[in-house]
Write a structure and sequence with these properties.
Length: 394
């Protein structure tokens, strides 16, 4: 059996899609019949300009071949990302044409990788398995607004329909997506393998904290993308000022709205927020251990009420208090699944302060959560589902 996996990001790049794809590839290699081959087509590390990691163009291990396509330098804005993707798609199609596959799997947050997978699967006349991590049509409308966003939404809606109707199975990482996709593609077959906790965080969760019960200002850590979807520029200046004598904020990451965050912090005269560049996971784990509270925020766009941030799984596994500015499905998930975690409405500073005050500033292991959402277990279950589709058993 020969399988093709398409993922725009892949280790050593830093992103939720990167780590998810790597875990699934490992599970496919483990669960596929002897002699099977998994080919991965991805990009050379390009997620952040401030985090540069080298990786070989072609990397081969037993049963897995990774081909990384080097992209031209680009900014994190929409135009730059679009040009980069078009270059990736052109070369990915050329590379995929060199072999015959039994199934194409595409993991995608911005729809275009899913559409690329549909195109390649259609040309090879093989099954298509889509792993959908976001609803791009919803998101783009919220970001661009009703006037500018309408023509883009119209085009992307048609592309989404073309893509989804060619899928033999559609996996949705968030149950919050189900209503949207059932309403439009109820004749498709769906699965729900969510994000999970990587082994590094399972190990870190077992290590005792050296900061529990700390006196003085509390260290509140955010680690991840700094983009429009996270809305840090809308919440952090006000929240940091409100807690200026009680908390120190550490933000580790980069993204399209980092400059806006820096401007907003400076304009508000904030002095208790430190920004650091993205860092490898080993160093990031040290930062997690040194924090007292882990912070998460999504913007107030309606589309974000359907998502389930992968960061929640990392945060919860570490046993730290979690302060989450989320709404919709993510808010319900936090309330039902994560102990010693509080939720406030996105961009609402007074609510955020009340939520902060209600936290117990101490480590609180969550063994039931860790056992339920271990990434390795979820990836194996998903790999079995992928192989069933490839073999025509699903």
């Amino acid at each position: 059996m020969r399988l093709l996996v398409l993922s725009f990001y892949y280790p050593p790049d830093l992103s939720a899609g990167s780590f998810r794809a790597a875990s699934l590839v490992a599970a496919l290699r483990e669960r596929a019949p002897p002699g099977s081959q998994v080919d991965v087509i991805t990009t050379s590390p390009n997620r952040y300009r401030t985090f540069s990691q080298s990786a070989p163009e072609i990397e081969e291990t037993e049963g897995v071949r990774i081909r990384r396509i080097r992209l031209p330098a680009h900014r994190s804005d929409m135009a730059g990302q679009s040009r980069a993707f078009l270059d990736f798609a052109r070369r990915a199609c050329s590379n995929a044409a060199e072999a015959r596959y039994d199934l194409v799997l595409a993991t995608s947050s911005r729809l275009l990788t899913a559409a690329l997978g549909a195109w390649i699967a259609r040309r090879q006349r093989v099954p298509l398995y889509l792993d959908i991590r976001d609803i791009f049509v919803d998101t783009i409308s919220d970001v661009l607004g009703p006037v500018t966003g309408w023509p883009v939404r119209h085009v992307m809606s048609r592309l989404e329909s073309w893509t989804m109707r060619r899928a033999d199975r559609i996996n949705l990482v968030s149950r919050g997506f189900e209503e949207y996709f059932r309403a439009r593609y109820d004749d498709r077959s769906f699965s729900f393998f969510t994000n999970g906790i990587d082994d590094e965080f399972l190990t870190a969760a077992a290590a005792p904290s050296t900061r529990s019960g700390t006196q003085g200002p509390v260290t509140v850590l955010y680690a991840g993308n700094i983009g429009e979807g996270q809305g840090l520029h809308e919440i952090l200046p006000g929240l940091a000022l409100a807690l200026r004598s009680r908390a120190r904020f550490l933000v580790i990451g980069d993204g399209g709205r980092r400059a806006a965050l820096e401007v907003a912090l400076a304009a508000a005269g904030v002095t208790n927020v430190e920004l650091r560049a993205p860092m490898p996971r080993a160093r990031l784990l040290d930062a997690y251990r040194g924090a007292d509270v882990l912070f998460l925020h999504l913007g107030s766009h309606a589309a974000l009420e359907k998502v389930l941030p992968s960061k929640l799984f990392e945060y919860a596994a570490l046993g730290k208090p979690v302060l989450a500015g989320v709404a919709g499905y993510a808010a319900r998930f936090v309330r039902e699944e994560i102990t010693n975690a509080t939720v406030f409405s996105p961009c609402d500073v007074p609510q955020a302060v009340l939520a902060f005050d209600s936290l117990e500033i101490r480590d609180c292991p969550r063994p039931a959560f860790v056992a339920k959402y271990a990434r390795t277990k979820i990836a194996r279950q998903m790999a079995d589902d992928v192989l069933a589709v490839a073999c025509g058993r699903a």
